[in-house]
Batch of 4 targets.
Target 1
Amino acid sequence: MLKGTITQLIDRGFGFIKTEDGKELFFHRSEIAGVEFSRLRVGQEVEFEMGQDKKGRSAAVKVTLIETKAPEPPPLSIV
């Protein structure tokens, strides 16, 4: 699996991912796994595979969000 960052989301159901090597790749909402398109945000990190769109162009397929853990809260101090 490759990694990248969502750089653009278009209301019509597609977007673009910037790969780790700096390339921009198209992705379609039908290729997103585990989350609805409307829940995606620019800046989120994703994993994906290289594939092709219906016109034969390079595109991201099998796109999944990389889960980031929330920072742990500091320990409570008892006074």
Target 2
Amino acid sequence: MTTAITEAPVADQKFVRGLGLLDSTMLVAGSMIGSGIFIVSAIIARQVGSPGWLLVVWIVTGLLTLMAALSYGELAAMMPKAGGQYVYLREAYSPLWGFLYGWTLFLVIQTGTIAAVAVGFTLQWRTYPVVFRIQLSNPANPFWWLV
């Protein structure tokens, strides 16, 4: 006795436009952990002086981040429009604040984020084995400047 498993034709399968709890959690965790954890942990550890206090700081900031995420979730449910924080500021205060946020995002926030990722990349790059870096140090290689 054989049973045949049939799948729906490709034309009938549709992409689900939504994120589940696991998907959303992984996006937030990936954004938080990112490259900043390699830089910020050492600075915080120097400031607080002990591993216990370092964990307390991470737990408190994790709870603050969770509250911010829940707040943004509520705002997104109240104002289901494209634009995120720009829309929230525009609707809550005035179009001027939305406009100023948009330009601040473009000129300061995003550029600072890119610079932080670049710092994290270069700090991690320096930890790669010397053999790999020696192979790249040939000026004929287009990536020699990364060494």
Target 3
Amino acid sequence: MPTTTAIPTGAKMPFDFEEIIKVPFTMKPYFQVYSNEDMRNDISRYTKYPALITDILEDRAKEFDTLGNRIWFESDIAIENDLIDKAAEKMNLNKHFKNIVELGLAIPDDIIIMHEGRIEACFVSFASGWDPSTTKGKTLAEVHSPVADNEKLIKASEAIVKAITGENCYHRYTWAISSISTRSNHPFYERPDFDKLEALTFRIEHEKTIPIVENESVVFLIQVSTIPLPDILNECGPLLLESINTMSDAVLEYKNLIKTKLHLNGEKNRV
């Protein structure tokens, strides 16, 4: 079962990397139906496996203490429509939460709630280079406007919202490589320079959606996993390099991968 705890060196990795790392690379969103059984098994770790999430919850609390309202908000619309408790009910959490902060500190996943196509609440401890506090009231298209090669993403935004507020749960994976080894890559934190691949961390985000009110509101859950990059290179190095080598210059710059690409191709040429 994937967790947000770093995968120990040498441990079997619980990921299908061919599903996560696409060749050729594309910014097109690959949302797939996530069965009710898979979703139930996924969120069961909230209550059934407390030992797996203790350090994650501690990290979330530390990020909240450090960043405060840079990682969360809750709109009047979210309050008026009782979206926090409705989301918690869909996640099989049988208790009342007074606000998004209380819910966000109780679960290991980052959480975003959309209502009528706009983001009305979030608690995102482990952001990957973006500021959650700036997304209040925005549509998916507006959130993705700074993303490189975003044409397909923006064009698909309305269709995505229509699908994820329907009957089914959905999921997708995204990945990044960072010189920040912590779970949070919030822009508040300085991104250190590096001179070797061993200093880098591979981040996987497993994004899942659960409809709250059909055709109206939906909750996004984002599960972050971090793995030392050398372990990824041992597991699927050629696949990762091929994907990076198909990226446009704009995507390489957006994902901070220009220097990483040079290092990876340098390592290949030395073999």
Target 4
Amino acid sequence: MSGKYSVRAHIRAQNLEGMIVTTTLQAHHLQTTAQLSNDLSPLSLRGAFGQFPSGVAALASYTDDGVAQGMVASSFTVGVSLEPPLVSVAVQNTSTTWPLLRETGRIGVSILGEGQGTIARQMAAKGTDRFDGLDIETNNDAIFVAESALWLETSIYGEFPAGDHVVALLEVHNLADFTDIHEPLVFHKSQFRNIRDH
């Protein structure tokens, strides 16, 4: 960098546990030290991955027998491809809802909006009616949650095994963007947060 915002980094090895990385940001006179770790336990990984803010997606549809099925995912990615328009979601192999959703023709994806953390918890709960009291809209059996930031009507484009998850590519057929009215809900450090709070 040029000007007063120069950054100096010093790296030195520290036994078998990893490396110490010391970075000095001269403009703000800050100094931080971080250690790379080989602790890749599920608990450690969840904590590390939780540092990355993500949107919260509700995936829902009516099955052939007319029963509403839905789930919530924070491992949702938009913009995988523009031609064809693709998004993706990673689903745990142990999910009992995904096998039902994947058999439907269209899956509604609602990127939940600010203040909808309670809805996210409700749709993630097990053994309850995930749609009880929810204001929903439907199109081609795809279910959408009202007052979300974004709706995407999708179908399965492909699925790929990914360790203890499956990554599903979803092709977008229709969309509705409400972000001028509703800011998206964010999941960060195992908590639901509103963008306006920061």
